[in-house]
Every structure is written in C-alpha cells, then in structure tokens.
Amino acid sequence: MITMEKIVSLCKRRGFIFPSSDIYGGFAAIYDYGPYGVELANAIKREWWKTMVQLRDDIVGLDSAIFMHPKIWEASGHVSGFSDPLVECKDCHTRSRVDHLLEEIGVEADEKMSEEEINKIFLENKEKLKCPNCGRKNFTEAKKFNLLVKSNLGNFTDDWDKKPVYLRGETCQGIYVNYRNVLDSTRVRIPFGIAQIGKAFRNEITARQFLFRTREFDQMEMQYFVHPDKEMDEYEKLRKARWQYYLDLGLKKEHLKWNKHKNLVFYAKAAYDIDYKFPFGFSELEGVHARGNYDLSQHTKFSGKDLSYVDSKTGEKYIPHIIESSVGVGRTVFAVLTEAYTEEKVGKEIRLVMKFPKKLAPVKVAIFPLLRNKPKLVKKAKEIFNDLKTDFVCEFDDNGNIGKRYRRQDEIGTVVGITADFQTLDDNTVTMRDRDTMKQIRVKIPELKDVVQRIIKGENFLELGKLVK
Ligand code: ATP
After folding, report:
1. pTM of the model
2. Closest residue (by CA) to atom 24 of ligand 1?
3. For residue 273, what pLDDT is reported?
4. Which of 67, 179, 210, 306 lies most in the core, judged by the most C-beta atoms within 10 Å?
5. What span, in angstroms and rounded, lies between the C-alpha atoms of 10 and 37?
6. Which helix (H) or strand (E) element contains residue 334?
7. Contact indicator for 345, 432 with CB cutoff of 8 Å
C-alpha cells in the first residue's frame, strides 16, 4: 500500500521535498523542493515545455510577471467570484471547505455555487457532517472566502484607486493580456497557442494534502486561440493530446480517468479534468476546458482595447474562443512520485525503489569506487564522473559499502550505478547496474556515454553490455 505518510517521509529523508521554514516548525501548505525534488520538477517542466512548445509549430512560449494591473483580476472575475465556500467549527475553529465535507458523504456540491445555494445543501446535510479535526458537529454557516493573495505593492501611493495588488491566482491571465502583443510581434495566426510555466498563489483553506494543494505553486498552462466554429474540434484534439502526454509521462492508464464537470460556469462550452489516483483517491491533476470567448471579451471590456482578430484571408472579424490545458507542477510531481514508489521483496528484505521514467529521474548515473581507501580506484571513478557529468546529472559516492550506496540510489531513483573495481584497472571496463532489474553488465569506459544515453532513451539494458550478474 502506497500511503501519503510513506511518500512524505521518503521525500523528506531523501531530499525531494521539505516543509517550508522547517526549523521554525513549518509553514502551512507551503513546501520547498530539495536537491532531488528540484531536479524532478525541472525534468517535468522540460517535458511539458517540449510537448507544448518545442514540438508544436503553432504554440509559442511566454513568461509574464507575477504582479499585474489590479483591473485584470476584476475583469477575470476573481475579485468577485474566486472563492471557496467555508464553514468554521465553533469548537476548535478549524475551517473546512463545505464542498469537500459534502463530497465525503457522497453529496454533490460545487465550489462555484453561490453562498445561498451551497448553504441550502449544507443545512440539509448538516447533521451528517463532522469537523475533520475534532469530530464535533458545531458549524457556522457557510461563507465564501476569496482565494486571491493580496500584496502591499504600490499601496504607498494613490495609484489604482488604492486597490490592492494581488499575487496572481493563475498564470493564464498573463497569457490573455499578452495575446495581442504575441499576435503583433510573431508570425502566429489562428489557431495558435501561448504556453507558460510560472508561480501562482492562492489562499487555500484545506492544507493537509502535501503537494496536491499548496498556497504557492507552479502552474503549466497553455491557452489555445481558435475560430468560434472550431472550438469543439480543437477541444477534442487537445483532450487526446493531454491524455497521451500523461501516458508518456509514465502514469498508468488505470490510474487516470476523465472527470466531466457537471456544473459548468455560464460561459464554458465544456470542461473535463484528468484525475489521477493519488494516495488519498482519484483527484484533479489537470483541467482541460473550452472557455468560449469569455476571457478576451472581458479584457476588451475592462481595458477598452479591441482584442478581436481579423482573418487576413477572409476579412472575417471575431473574438477568438479559447481552449485551455492547465496543470500544477506540484500535483504532477506528486503523481510521478506516487507512480514511481515501489516496495519489492528481495531475499528477506524489502527494497524501496523509485522507478521513475528514465527521462524524469533526478539523477541519471551514480559512480562509485569499489573501495574508498584505494587511491587508484578513487582516481578512476573520479575520471569517469568528471567525464559523464558534462552530459548527465551524476553523483559520486564513496560512502559506506556498495550495498548501502545502491540502497540510497534506489530510493533516489538513479537510473544506473557504475562501479570502478580492480578489473577496471586491467581492462578499462566497469560494472553498470540497472535500477529496475538490479542486473549488472560490463561496459567499456569509452562507450559509457553512449550506453547511458541509450538506456535513458529506453533501450534494453541487457543488450548493451556483457551480463555479469
Ligand atoms: P481544485 O478544484 O483542486 O481546487 P481548481 O479547479 O481550482 O482545483 P484550477 O483553477 O483549474 O484548479 O487550476 C488548474 C490546475 O492548477 C489544477 O488542475 C492543479 O493541477 C493546479 N492547482 C490549482 N490549485 C492548486 C493548488 N492550490 N496547489 C497545487 N496545484 C494547484
């Protein structure tokens, strides 16, 4: 059984994820990425960028700022509507999301419902609901709580009518407001997309789900601008592409499912989430939505700038519709960690090994001298390390015995381990151990780079050298 506790504990012990401000007792719903976590997150961002931008001729990248004009959040509807319904326990003062409490007893509710609507359902089911902290049933009424995080930037002047400047609650607003700049400065024509990876901030209430729900997180979002008549066709194509992306990321088909939104916001044409089977059950990994022309219409209205598109061939003028793919880096990291976590029985022991897809593994090669007190072996291993690190993330390790080193590298998910031994000094070959099968082959040192490259690309390990164990 893969539990949340096991993953959280491995992440801390092996340097993937640390609670933020750990020496001060942590800081709720904020996490830091340790040495292996940041490599994993970077690999995920690289894969996403490659799929979304590099391999597509119709999608370009963007990196917009976190701070934006406050009017943007009015136009987007976040100031008035970006809120979750909350109840507070009158006894222990724990706040909970009503829609989540209702979900747990099998009653459908949606965070987007009005305060009145949600209160009606809440009151009908109140007797069945318990505070997740103290177990009592003494709740306040449900209140909507705005998720935007305010800053004091610029508040020392009278600018913007003294309106607060927010830390962005989602990255896509930066895409919408740059739509015209991108159109005017590049060669893209409809249909085209703009992709971006960046931080977003939300005053989340539920703060007990590790990387799944954090108050600061990276989003990877792609907004695709289409002709109104093509919206649903393009939407279906995007859904297919996004499903395939997760299979290519190594998530098993049976751990993924589509979740169709039952309550659509008024402007949306369709909305599905891709849910992943996290240790606490199936939950949203990514949203794939058809948003109509709401976003560009709102920004036209609030900015006073015409954001319509003129087709240069037909002369037709229209406000583009948008379909979007939106996913968090942290949620993806969590899904990939869950999928990789493997406990295997080896002899009488349990081997814990992180079977990351090779392209995502934080460390590709670990290099060991067989014995740390033999200068010739250490020198040889260092030479190999210095050579390989120009192409791959490598680790040199001469701590403890070989068994202990392997155990550590297995828990990090290192793809292969290379050992320089006495035979190396004679014939310039090394043993290479495969993380997943623990088999060992003998490889000539000049061929190492090529062999590692081929293993990462997915070639069969056993065919790349002479089997020795
Ligand atoms: P939820 O219903 O779980 O609160 P949401 O529907 O509000 O999520 P969106 O606003 O559609 O989420 O955000 C798009 C994606 O961004 C989500 O699918 C998720 O991967 C990621 N995301 C959203 N909020 C968070 C968060 N607090 N922590 C980590 N990732 C998040």
Report:
1. 0.91
2. 213
3. 97
4. 210
5. 11
6. helix 329-340
7. no
Please tell me the distance between residue 328's alpha carbon and the centre of ligand 1 in angstroms. Answer: 7
Among protein residues, the one whose CA lies closest to atom 21 of ligand 1: 328
Please give the tally of structural domains in the chain. Answer: 3
Containing structural domain, residue 417: 363-467
278 in contact with ligand 1, CB cutoff 6 A: no
Ligand 1 site, residue 328, Cβ cutoff 6 A: yes
Mean pLDDT by 10 residues, the chain (469 residues): 95 97 93 98 98 98 96 92 83 84 85 81 89 88 88 67 86 98 96 98 84 97 98 98 98 98 89 97 97 97 96 96 98 98 95 98 97 95 98 95 94 98 96 96 96 95 85
Residues 40 and 142 both lie in one domain? no
For the Cβ of 198 lying below 6 angstroms from any atom of ligand 1, the answer is no
In ligand 1, the atom with minimum distance to the C-alpha of 214 is: 28
* CATH number, position 124: 3.30.40.230
Q: Which of 20, 102, 103, 331 to mutate to test the pocket of ligand 1 (most atoms within 8 A of CB)?
A: 331
Centre of ligand 1 to C-alpha 327, Å, is: 7
Instruction: Say yes or no: 291 and 174 in one domain.
Output: yes
User: Which pLDDT score is estimated for 157?
Assistant: 54
Gap from CA of 39 to ligand 1 centroid (Å)? 22
Ligand 1 pocket, 204 CB below 6 A?
yes
Q: Indicate whether 345 belongs to any domain.
A: no
- Ligand 1 pocket, residue 436 CB under 6 Å: no
Are residue 10 and residue 48 in the same domain, yes or no? yes
Same domain, 161 and 93: no
Q: What is the DSSP secondary structure assignment for residue 415, as one 8-state letter?
A: S
Centre of ligand 1 to C-alpha 395, Å, is 35
Displacement of CA 170 from its chain's centroid (Å) = 14
Model pLDDT, residue 116? 84
Question: Which residue in 293, 342, 288, 118 sits closest to 190, CA to CA?
Answer: 293
Backbone angles phi, psi at 392, to 5 degrees: -135, 155
Residue 465: what pLDDT? 84
pLDDT of residue 97: 86
Which of the listed residues 284, 318, 336 is the one where a domain comes to its end?
A: 336
Cβ proximity of 245 and 355 under 8 Å: no
